[in-house]
């Protein structure tokens, strides 16, 4: 049985970490995601943009007082992609 191709967007370590985090919470702000993943702000911002462009997450930018706040939430499309990725990777891991 041939292996299903792994989604290259989710095969990146940081993007996979972001998706793994977001699938378990209703939403998360940028600072929390940065702390949990250990990513730099610049790299995380680029990866969030890629996930958002793909439709895997939604990003809301607003201000709380004078401080900007970016909140990310996984989309239905993102949940489907993540679950498919996990299912496909399990094929590779079966003995």
UniProtKB/TrEMBL annotation:
Organism domain of life: Bacteria
Coiled coil location: none
Winged helix DNA-binding domain span: 14-93
SUPFAM superfamilies from the UniProt entry: Winged helix' DNA-binding domain
Pfam families assigned to the protein according to its UniProt record, in alphabetical order: HTH_34
PANTHER family in the cross-refs: BSL7504 PROTEIN (PTHR37318:SF1)
Descriptive protein name: Transcriptional regulator
Organism: Roseivirga spongicola
